[in-house]
Amino acid sequence: MNTAEQPDHRAAVAAEAARFADLVRGADMTAPVPTCPGWDLTDLARHTGSVHRWFSVLLRQRIQTPPTSRDVDLRLPERADGYADWLSEGAAEAAEVFAGTDLDAPMWVWGADGHARFWVRRMLFETLVHRVDAERALGLPSAVDLALARDGVDEFLVNLPFAALFAPKVAHLRGPGRLIRFACTDTDGSWLVRLRPDGFGLVPDDDAVADAVVTAPAADLLLLLFGRLDRSAAAVSAEGDAELLDLWFANSEF
Q: What CATH fold (topology level) applies to the domain 167-251?
């Protein structure tokens, strides 16, 4: 399990949002996004900027119970060529909220870490992964910072067991104590997931022999887990119980 010091999520949100805004500035906003079927670049930008504004509202209000409404004044741009500035404005609003937020403050969250920092970290990986989606839509290569990629793998695996509200297929991730190990090949990151009859989740990495092992460079492992890379990719090694891996990748969509 990841025990490394976490990156500065607030600074990383700002950097990733700026990269996203630069990508869409002057771009064809009708370009389809192959990693988000049915979406074009406008849909992708609207979704990402909406996440920034929605999470900023949650942080500003320090919510302690599940919100009863998701209505937010998005102030959407009137024209498609306004999305770059709109994204920048949302990121600036988020940065202002972050500056006034105690990241250790208790809050309602849907995931594992019941503190304000959950929402900042979640915003980061929403932005980073969708920045990669935008690059795919524009036919551009993608690069992900090593420390962020490692942290993103951890964020995904820590929170996935709690994601049934919007990822209902995770309810199928059950098994009689079967173990899957996910490991980075370019940094010290290893996570052990146990599938139980009543659920699944991370367990201490005690060098147990896993039933299946998935390894890749951190950036590729991140994109694999978020469904942006196929496990048949050259950078990915998937060994062991093939049925167990089929079960995982068929039901772990986030």
A: Nonspecific Lipid-transfer Protein; Chain A (3.30.1050)
